[in-house]
Amino acid sequence: QQQVKQSPQSLIVQKGGIPIINCAYENTAFDYFPWYQQFPGKGPALLIAIRPDVSEKKEGRFTISFNKSAKQFSLHIMDSQPGDSATYFCAASNGNAGKSTFGDGTTLTVKP
Amino acid sequence: DVKVTQSSRYLVKRTGEKVFLECVQDMDHENMFWYRQDPGLGLRLIYFSYDVKMKEKGDIPEGYSVSREKKERFSLILESASTNQTSMYLCASTGAGAGETQYFGPGTRLLVL
User: Fold this and answer.
1) Separation CA B82–CA B91 (nearest Å)
2) Looking at the complex, does the CB of residue A30 fall below 8 Å from at least one CB of chain B?
């Protein structure tokens, strides 16, 4: 049973566009929602994270929007650049031995 | 900076061979994880460990075992490699001071012929 559903599987935007990646979770005990960015040949790395006490968090061009009642959160990338082309994973955890549940990933391509 | 290293970036093995994948972290993290990454399937947890000599099965432990004799080192063992174990293997760690962020190694791409 998948506990974090991520969409879309792939996304192509033009430079300057605003790609949006969505995730939905089921377990209401989750209290930490990170997004990871993975470039080809590298391991995933933390991009930005949010806790459910806020509805939005912004770091540079990256924003997480969080809707606790709908059990959904999304990543927005403002003014996207070709260098943002990567695979993005959402995740959720509840402090249980550091375990996280990951979405299936979204491959983003930003065309010049 | 946290550093998680994996012993090999690429490995080619034959069906039936015993395969060892090693992971070392330098931040004194309590928790370590092994995932496999396959296209369209995301990151699937194989095993994790929350302390030395402790291990817990993840979502897909069949065909794998692990060893954690020292806090900084977590090994994944394929007892008898099969072609369906061809994949990218990622190690990660987290612990006190890291919040719940997982720090990943660069991955080992394993091809089983």
Assistant:
1) 20
2) no
Task: Check CB contact of B27 with chain A, cutoff 8 Å.
Answer: no
State which amino acid sits at residue B26.
D
- B27, B101, B108, B109: best mutation site toward chain A, by most A Cβ within 10 Å? B101
Cβ atoms of residues B104 and B47 within 8 Å: no
Give how far A104 is from chain B: nearest CA, Å.
4
Per DSSP, the three-state class of B42 is strand
The per-residue pLDDT for B40 is 83
A37 interfaces chain B, CB cutoff of 8 Å: no
Per-residue pLDDT tens over the stretch A54-93 = 999 999 999 999 999 999 999 999 999 999 999 999 999 8
Q: What are the structure tokens assigned to A97, written together?
A: 């031995």
**In the block, residue with structure tokens 């959402």:** A90
pLDDT (tens digit, 9 = 90+) per residue, B41-98?
889 999 999 999 999 999 999 999 999 999 999 999 999 999 999 999 999 999 865 5
| Helical ranges in A1-112 per DSSP H | none
- The Cα–Cα gap between B87 and A73 comes to 29
A97 has pLDDT over 80 = no
Residue B26 half-sphere exposure, CB side, CA atoms within 13 Å?
7
Q: What's the one-letter identity of residue A27? A: N
